[in-house]
Design a protein that fits this description.
77% of the residues lie in helices and 0% in strands. The chain is built from 10 helices and no strands. The protein starts with a helix and ends with a helix.
Amino acid sequence: MSLEEGKALYKRLIPIAQGKIQPDRSIPYDWITYDVWAKLRAGDEDLAESFLQGALLCVRAQVDEARNQCTGMRALLHQRYKEGGARFSSTAMAYGMELRLSASELASIASIEDSYSKLAVIVNDIESYDKEVRSFECSQAEGGKILNMVQMQVDETGCSVTAAKRVLWVLCREWELEHLEMVALREARPEGCSATLRAYMNGLEYLMGGNEVWSRYTQ
C-alpha cells in the first residue's frame, strides 16, 4: 500500500470509527471498524473514547509525512511514540482493566508514561530492526523509510548495527532503573496513590515486559 493509499484508507475509516458515518456493509474494512468501536463504546463510552484517541494517534502518524523529517533522537522518539502504538496500548489496557484516572492523576505520572513510551519504542526498534530492513528491501513503498533508533545510531555515529544495538540495550536498562525510581517516588507522595493509579502504573510495567518478549519472538 502506498502512502497516498494509506492516507485515503484512514481518511475513510476514521469517521466510521468515530461513529460519525455509517459503514458500507459490502466493504469489510468499513463494517468491522464500525462494529468494533460501537461495541467498545457500548461497554464504556468514556474509556472507549480515550482508547480511540490512542488508536487515531497511531494510524495518523503512520501516514504523516513528518515521519521522514525526524532529526535527532528526541524527534525520532516523539514520532515513534505516536506511530509505534505506545499510547494505543496504554489506553487499551485502561479500557480492558476498567481503570478510570482523573486528569490530575494522569498529569502526576506524565514523566512515568514518557518513560514507558521511550522504553517500548527502543526495545521494539532493537528487536524489530532486522525485520524492518528485510521488509524495506522487499517493498520499497512510496514514502518508505527505516524509521528506527538502531538505524539512527548507525547513521549518526558510524558504528555497526551490532554495536548500535548493544548501546541501546544499555540505555534501556538504565531507563528501566529510572522508571522504577519514578514509580516508587510517585507512590510515596504525600497526596497518596490510589489503587487505580497503582494498578495503571503496574500495568505499564507489564506492557513493557510484554512488548520486549513479543518484539523478540515475532518474525
